[in-house]
Amino acid sequence: MALLSEEDVRRMSDNGTRGPVVVRRDQVLTPGARDYLRDHQVEVVYPQGKAREGEAAHGRPSPRYQTLFGAVLTEKPEHMTHLRGNTLVFKDHPRIAFRGQIDALEGELLLAQQAAEGEGLHTLTEELEEVLGFVRRFIRFDVLEEPVGELRLCGYGPEELREYSHYPERHFGQGHFLPRYTDGPALLALNQARTAVRRTELAAYDAFRGPEGAVTRPDILQGLNRLSSLLWIMMIKRKAGRYERSEHNEPGPAGGGAAGPAHRGN
């Protein structure tokens, strides 16, 4: 029987920022691991049931999964996955597609960080680390139905994001522009991440649209919209030369973005 320690579940949940944590039948959570998951409100699922649990009197496994269409299953089919807890859905379910777009967005942000650091733009790298931390929380927002809450990224609130992204020339001396191949790796990587945010926003609309077209999670849609604005601001700042080059090449801690009125928008 394998033990999952607090260190194990910390790694599996990206330091308590995302779930669910999947525990196999041959694994057991230590008390410290259970406390950590509870304190960080990370969901735990047992796809094969807990050890020695779920066995009926006749020796055959009892049902462990349920579906949105009323079926009860003893094993998880390969074409299905967890929506929440032990509720299974098909892998093309809009909520699962949305989570896939979040994963893709994380990948684009990491590449943007690499490009920024490669150009010596350490402040931009730190700001993108803060953005990455925010994006990684969207799985929690969905799975645990947590509210996004008050939005403030890299020193900007919603109104500031809107102001600076709509009127960049007023604040940065650089108007709206179309990216070109000559703009450099960091700016083009920011643009790629911004388009990934747009795709994620569309996936969120499909995932959280009710039968009558009403959106059930407007906070998630708004958070993504503001994030798109922030990345546009970063592009404007890079174009305007507002990010100074640095010889320091070690990525900073999450949330290390610089604050100040000349940083965010949209």
Key structural traits:
266 residues; alpha/beta; four-stranded mixed beta sheet; globular; disordered C terminus
Strand count, sense and closure of the main sheet?
A: 4 strands, mixed
Helical element count? 9
The share of residues in helices is: 40-55%
Terminal-residue CA separation: 52 Å
* Rg on CA atoms, Å: 22 Å
* Outline: globular
Describe the structure.
The protein has 266 residues and is an alpha/beta fold. Helix content is 45%, strand content 9%. It has nine helices and eight strands. The chain has helices at 6-12, 31-39, 94-118, 122-136, 138-143, 158-166, 168-172, 185-207, 218-239; strands at 2-4, 21-22, 27-29, 44-45, 65-67, 72-73, 80-84, 87-90. The strands form three sheets. It has a four-stranded mixed sheet with strand order 6-5-8-7, with no helix packed on it. Strands 1-3 form a two-stranded parallel sheet. Strand 7 and strand 8 form a beta hairpin. Residues 53-60 and 249-266 have low confidence and may be disordered.
